[in-house]
Amino acid sequence: MQHDTAGSPGFAWLVFRFLWPFQYFRDCTRGSKLERVQNYRHNRAMRIYLPGFIAKWSALTVASFGAGGLFEGVLQLVLPAVACFLTGTWTFLVSVMLAAAYFWLERFPELY
Questions:
Q1: Does a structural domain hold residue 69?
Q2: Model pTM?
Q3: Which domain holds residue 94?
Q4: How many domains does the chain have?
């Protein structure tokens, strides 16, 4: 039995779409004034999805720091612990950036 996988996206693409929120937003710094206003309104409409992305990236942060603590404390492996802590720091920064974007879009209804 063969499966037709030509039309279905790969697993990596699905994970990317599940975790990366920036593909759903538009650039408000380019174009005419009307285009910038429309892009900002689009971003404000899409802000309702940001808390879910914040939760996903926060869970990745907790998992990364937890794995780093496990590697460092129980297994006494320094290099994997450093990699986990570094990954946790980056995921934390993405969470903070998403929270700042959410609060900005929530607070300012019209940019122009």
A1: yes
A2: 0.84
A3: 31-107
A4: 1
